[in-house]
Design brief:
With 660 residues, the chain is mainly beta. It is 6% helix and 55% strand.
Length: 660
């Protein structure tokens, strides 16, 4: 038992409280997110996907959404050719806000915003990312709100024992360019890693340009043999244009913009710190706390429809505070190994939004202050009934309180609402051989309404107290088979029955009729001396099971999706990588009646990348060149309410990386 605790503490010292890995086991076979502790995939009642640092290096991905889409088969939507505005969709939830049902973490810290806006992915510099874990299916017991379709945890790099610096620069189509610097090392036992980055481009369409500056610093180390600690800070300054949707005949010119002045700007500062302490040989305590500050300006002159509606300009200020104490107890029960995890998650989010009708932001039209406070307690346990049979279960109870103070000339109000939800989980994992895992589980999950789904502070709509949280029950069974150390096969069958999913039905947000999401997820990965291949296939059927739309498919959910990556190691220095993605057809977002108008057709994409390591002695130099969408396939990032958001056709990129 002492060895187990010591190993856990060593992991914490290396990667902080939320970013554990291991030096003795393949990092791709260890996950943090599934249990909030470093756990072998073999012991987890899920089939996670892990995007490793080697995957990221081989793919030369410029953003987290690109890596998720190509390496883990995650369905991505977007409003423009701008990586910062992508929306992720796990387990086929579709609709206008699928990102609200996927929890995204950075080193265990929530990135999801309290309002309907998606995550700004620019706040995650790709040069700082070590690995990405994707856990499909609910995990509300451990994480609470948003963890309905799944959890994505981005884990940043740790300091290298030997001082190391990497410089990367690349250019691409439509004036795309990127420059990054990463340096790390250890000074007197204190590890450090610092990053700087710049990314910009004009975008595929007119007025779809973007520009991002990012920086980060992480410090970590062991205070003594029993205590480790870390602290990190990051800052991002980002701006992007919004070209708008194309309607009707305008679709003939895919590159044109319909919004000539819409744009947004964001500045973000994130601070997080924590420590991990071995209190006894069987009890581990960790504490993580964080602060995030976002200042956002959004300009929508396109909203003008004179004389009825004026142009709109928003200012947002979002401050987020979090604190998460956690205990891990490893002590036998009736001589059976047992791991008990329990903790509390506290968060407070303060959003202040002001709405104007003129670009110089004089004369406030609406002024809204929103406070969202969440307190949740959870307990999770894994009991080894035998050497080959694991029983896991957990429970969470959580209270979510929202208070709104809204001021405008015609409809000011002060109001509040409090929701209390519970989640539970039970699973059984059978390990009949050293190469086979079989599991089955059932979960209860939930999602609270976004604050602007509940409170109509962007219009004259009142506070909507009738809107209830979404809830659901998920069932899944799965198998993992490793006939060899370099071959992994996974299969999962799932069904999620949801109640009260939230959608906009004019003139307000409402709880929909019952829905069901069922599907099959298959993955395979094989590594050889001369090549490596992995594939991820999903079949999903998401449909309404009650009400006027009973039997209809939930829109903007592809029933079939397949991603294949092949890397050929032509020589020790030359690597050729190709990616193929097949996307099935789907109804446009908002087409709950399945009328089939503006339906997105199926399509196939091919990407190529060639990398060469130059024969140098004192520094490592890699040059690379690639083509995305090789055959110039025309498709759309998103089709919603009759509007099309075209994606780029064939694009090129080239660059180099220097490490010394």
């Amino acid at each position: 038992m002492k060895k187990l605790i010591t190993a856990a503490l060593t992991v914490g010292a290396l990667l902080g409280a939320q970013a554990e890995t291991t030096n003795t086991v393949d990092a791709a076979r260890i996950v943090v997110t599934a249990t909030r502790n470093a756990t072998p995939i073999r012991s987890v009642a899920k089939n996670p996907s892990v995007i490793t640092s080697k995957d990221i290096e081989n793919g030369r991905y410029s953003s987290v959404p690109e890596a998720l889409q190509k390496q883990a088969g995650v369905f991505i939507s977007n409003w423009a050719d701008n990586p910062s505005q992508a929306q992720v969709n796990l387990r086929g939830f579709g609709g206008d806000n699928p990102h609200g049902k996927t929890l995204v973490l950075l080193n265990g810290r929530k990135l999801n915003r309290p309002d309907m806006a998606g995550i700004n992915w620019a706040q995650i510099p790709m040069q700082a990312v070590e690995r990405i874990e994707v856990i499909r299916g609910p995990n509300s017991v451990l994480y609470g709100d948003h963890a309905v379709g799944g959890v994505i945890n981005i884990i940043t790099k740790e300091p290298s024992e030997i001082p190391q610096t990497t410089l990367t620069a690349s250019i691409g189509s439509y004036e795309a360019q990127e420059q990054t610097l990463t340096t790390s090392g250890v000074i007197d036992g204190l590890g450090y890693i610092a990053t700087l980055g710049h990314q910009s481009g004009d975008g595929y369409r007119d007025r779809s340009g973007y520009d991002t500056l990012s920086s980060s610093l992480r410090l970590s180390g062991n205070i003594n043999e029993r205590i480790s600690a870390y602290a990190e800070i990051s800052a991002i300054k980002e701006q992007h244009q919004l070209p708008g949707a194309l309607f009707g005949a305008a679709r003939k010119d895919r590159k044109q913009a319909t919004n000539q002045d819409d744009a947004a700007r964001e500045e973000t500062i994130n601070i997080q710190a924590g420590f991990e302490a071995l209190l006894t040989n069987e009890l581990l305590f960790s504490l993580d706390g964080g602060f995030s500050k976002k200042n956002i300006e959004a300009d929508f002159p396109s909203y003008e429809f004179a004389p009825f509606f004026p142009p709109v300009y928003y200012d947002y200020k979002i401050n987020t505070y979090t604190l998460s104490p956690k205990f891990t107890l490893l002590t036998p029960i009736a001589e059976m190994e047992n791991e008990l995890i329990f903790g509390v998650d506290l968060s407070a989010e303060k959003l202040n939004t002001q709405k104007y009708n003129v670009p110089n932001r004089s004369g406030i039209h609406t002024d809204t202050k929103v406070t969202k406070e969440v307190i949740g307690g959870y307990i999770s346990d894994t009991l080894n009934l035998t050497d080959k049979l694991l029983l896991s279960g957990g429970f969470r109870t959580e209270e979510n309180t929202v208070e709104v103070r809204h001021k405008e000339a015609l409809a000011s109000y002060n109001d509040s609402i409090r929701h209390t939800e519970d989640a539970w989980q039970m699973a059984l994992t059978w390990l009949p051989t050293e190469t086979l895992k079989v599991f089955a589980g059932v979960d209860r999950t939930y999602r609270y309404p976004f604050i602007d789904e509940q409170a109509g502070y962007q219009s004259s709509a009142p506070f909507n107290k009738n809107l209830q949280p979404e809830t659901g029950i998920n069932y899944e069974i799965g198998v993992e088979y490793m006939p060899a150390s370099n071959l992994v096969l996974q299969a999962t069958i799932f069904r999620t029955d949801m109640e009260d999913e939230i959608a906009y039905v004019w003139p307000d947000n409402v709880n929909l009729d019952e829905t069901t999401h069922r599907g099959v997820e298959l993955s395979a990965a094989y590594t050889h001396d001369v090549f490596a291949i992995n594939a991820y296939y999903t079949w999903i059927q998401s449909e309404f099971t009650a009400g006027a739309n009973k039997g209809n498919e939930i829109p903007w959910v592809p029933q079939n999706k397949l991603d294949i990556n092949l890397a050929l190691f032509l020589t020790d220095a030359l690597t050729f990588t190709t990616h193929m993605s097949y996307m099935g057809s789907m109804f446009q977002s908002s087409d709950n009646a399945n009328n089939g108008v503006n339906q997105q057709s199926e399509y196939v994409l091919f990407d190529l990348l060639l990398q060469y390591d130059l024969p140098t002695d004192k520094v490592d130099v890699t040059v690379f060149a690639g083509i995305d969408n090789l055959f110039g396939t025309e498709y759309n990032y998103l089709v919603s309410w009759g509007g099309y958001y075209p994606a780029p056709e064939r694009t090129f990129k080239t660059g180099l990386s220097i490490t010394f």
